Amino acid sequence: FDKTGTLTQGRPAVKSCDDEVLRDAAALAEGSNHPLSRAVVEAARERGLPVASARELTEVAGIGLQGVLDGRPSELSSASHAIDRGLLKASEVPDELTASVLIIDGEVRGVISFEDRIREEASSVISALRQDGRQVSLLTGDRRGIAHSVARSVGIAPEDVHAELTPEGKLAFVSESDVPLAMVGDGINDAAALAEAGVRDGVGIAIGAGTNVAIESADIVLPGERVGAVLEAVQIARATRRTIRQNLSLSFLYNTCAIPVAAFGLLGDSGPLVAGIAMGLSSVSVVANSLRLRLSLRRDAIE
C-alpha cells in the first residue's frame, strides 16, 4: 500500500506555518494538483493571503516544486529531500507530521507541517488481509517517523514499513520482489509501481479518486475512495478462479464420458447424437455456472 491518499484520506491540512512562508509557498503550489500543494493554497486563501504564481514552475515527482519567485530560484521541497541535502536537520521537523520546506536562493525560509487523517476502514482492511495470510507492506516517500506512526495505527508490522522512497524506489521494491504483488496506490508517484506489478504477474490497483496517471497505469480501479474494495477485488478474483475451475471440470466430465463412448460405437447409431447432446449440455452448464457467479456477486453488492 501507498500511504497518502490510500491508507490516509489524502486531504492533508496545514497544521502550522507562518503567513509569509505560507504566502510564498502558495505561489509555487498554485500550479500543482498534489494534495499537499492544494492544502497550501487553500490555507493561504483561508488566511486572506494574496496568492501569486511562480514562473518556470517544474514539478519533480517525489521531491517537490521548483520555480522562480520574484526573480529568485525557489523550491517547495519534501522535508526528506531537504534533510538529505543538508539544508535542514531532522530535529527541526515534527517527527510524526508530514512537512514541506520552502527554500529560496538555496536557504530554508520555513517549514510547513501537515496533518492527514487515516481512513476509517484502513485498519479493518489490513487486519482482514493479514488474517487471509497476506503480507502487507507500506511504501511511502514520507519520513520514517510518519510512516511508522501510520503503520501502527492500521496494523502493519514495523519491518514491513519502507519509508523515504522515491517513485524509483517503489518501482524497485515491486520489480525486485520474489513473488507477484498487488500494489495499491493513487498518485503520480505510484504509477510506475502500479504498472510494474501488472507486468510481473501481479496486479496494480488504483484508488478511483486518485490521479489519472495512476488510474491509467493500474489493472484494477476501485470505485471512489473505498480502500475496502481491495478486499472485494480479492474475493471476486477468488470466486472467478473457482468458477473457471468448475467450468473446466464440467467440460472435462462431459467430454471424457460421452466422446469416447460415441467414438467406440458403444451406443450404436445413436452415439454421435448422444455426443452432440453432451457437448451442448457442457456449454449450457458452463454458461449457467458463470451466470450463477454473476448473480452471486450482484446479491453480495446489494447486501
Entry summary:
With 303 residues, the chain is α/β, with parallel strands linked by helices. It is built from ten helices and eleven strands.
What does the secondary structure layout of this molecule look like, with pairings?
Layout: E1 13-16, H1 19-29, H2 35-46, E2 55-60, E3 64-69, E4 72-78, H3 79-84, E5 98-104, E6 107-115, H4 122-131, E7 138-139, H5 144-154, E8 161-162, H6 167-175, E9 182-185, H7 191-199, E10 203-207, H8 212-217, E11 220-222, H9 229-263, H10 271-302
Parallel strand pairs: 7-8, 9-10, 10-11
Antiparallel strand pairs: 1-6, 2-3, 3-4, 4-5, 5-6
Helix pairs in contact: 1-2, 6-7, 9-10
How large is the share of residues in beta strands?
A: 15-25%
Strand order in the sheet with the most strands: 1-6-5-4-3-2
The profile of the biggest β sheet is: 6 strands, antiparallel
Q: What's the N-to-C terminus distance? A: 27 Å
Derived structural class = alpha/beta
Overview of the molecule:
It is built from 10 helices and 11 strands. The chain is of the alpha/beta class and 303 residues long. Helices cover 47% and strands 18% of the residues.
Features:
single chain; 303 residues; alpha/beta; six-stranded antiparallel beta sheet; three-stranded parallel beta sheet; 10 helices; 11 strands; 18% strand; elongated
